[in-house]
Amino acid sequence: MAHLVRTDRPDRCSVGSARRYRAARSRNGGAVTGPAPDGLRVPVADPAAAAQFYADVLGADLVGNGATVDLHGTGTVEFVSAEHPLSRFPRVVVTYVLDQPSEVEDVTGAASARGAEILKPAKKALFGSFSGTFRAPDGLVWKLASDKRKDNGRAASEPKPIETSLILGVREPTASRSFYTSLGMQTDRDYGNKYIDFVPAPGTARLCSMPGAALAKDVGVADSSEASDVAFVHRTSAAEAERLLAAAATAGGHVLPDASGAQAFADPDGFRWLVVTQ
User: Fold this and answer.
1) What is the 3-state secondary structure (H, E, C) of the chain?
2) pLDDT at 26 > cutoff 80
3) Domain range for residue 58?
4) What total number of domains does the chain contain?
5) Is residue 206 assigned to a domain?
6) Tens digit of pLDDT for each residue in 135-145?
7) Which residues form the VOC domain (predicted)?
């Protein structure tokens, strides 16, 4: 069945893109190139407590030293100790696409019970979607969404995402698209300066972009023009890391030093990428 898509509704774009994931990979020979976001690194006062929130709310597995959560195979969130945790909207929204509307309600309720700030209660939206937003205790803003207005089956007792996406609030999505395609990413859904996303690699989140003010309004927070405090993590080979850093510098980004020892670059909007060699 065809789905109507509103380009000012990032939950609709993410859900629609998830349904075309395998087809897009097939067109690209099954491979996705470029800096796939394997994880998101977030500065917090208490990494273990931040990670436990997601273990409780999302049923996510704790990995490594217990300060990283695995979002059911759709990427990770890593928490690092910092004197200055997130204090403002980081211009990134994590969209967590679920199957049933009642799953959206259940996860929203669990988040609220464990200290999250509900920004927009979960409810039916125009054109058949169901969504809500919250700010986690660590400061990350999440959007939970389903492409259904009502359940058409039994909700899972432990809901797992169809897809996870990271939406960047940028100055101009078309300029952001030019930068990331220069690094090797493949555009999937393109609505010009309203919304653009890229084909995800298996086991990673989908990268998306939309105007910062529109993104902030959609999730119910004040916009911020300051540099984001979160960082994206990409794991790759040493040779590919060298290629990415050179391509980023040529395309208008900036190669940066990083205290963790990883190689790093920033895109033209200031979003940092940590390139970890394996």
Assistant:
1) CCCCCCCCCHHHHHHHHHHCHHHHHHHCCCCCCCCCCCEEEEEECCHHHHHHHHHHHHCCEEECCCCEEECCCCCEEEEEECCCCCCCCCCEEEEEECCCHHHHHHHHHHHHHCCCEEEEEEEECHHHCEEEEEECCCCCEEEEEECCCCCCCCCCCCCCCCEEEEEEEECCHHHHHHHHHHCCCCEEEECCCCCEEECCCCCCCEEEEEEHHHHHHHHCCCCCCCCCCCEEEEEECHHHHHHHHHHHHHCCCEEECCCCCCEEEECCCCCEEEEEEC
2) no
3) 10-226
4) 1
5) yes
6) 999 999 999 99
7) 36-147
Residue 118: CA count within 13 A, CB half-sphere:
16
Average pLDDT of span 209-228: 91
Res. 1 pLDDT band, cuts 50 70 90: very low
- 105 has a pLDDT exceeding 80: yes
CATH number at residue 23: 3.10.180.10
User: What is the number of residues in the chain?
Assistant: 278
- Measured between its terminal Cα atoms, the distance across the chain in Å is 42
Amino acid at 35: P
Confidence of residue 24 (pLDDT cuts 50, 70, 90): very low
**pLDDT for 10 beyond 60:** no
Whether 233 is in a domain gets the answer no
Is 215:221 a contact under the CB 8 Å cutoff?
no
78 part of a folded domain: yes
241 occurs within a structural domain: no
Torsion over CA: 256, 257, 258, 262 (sign):
positive
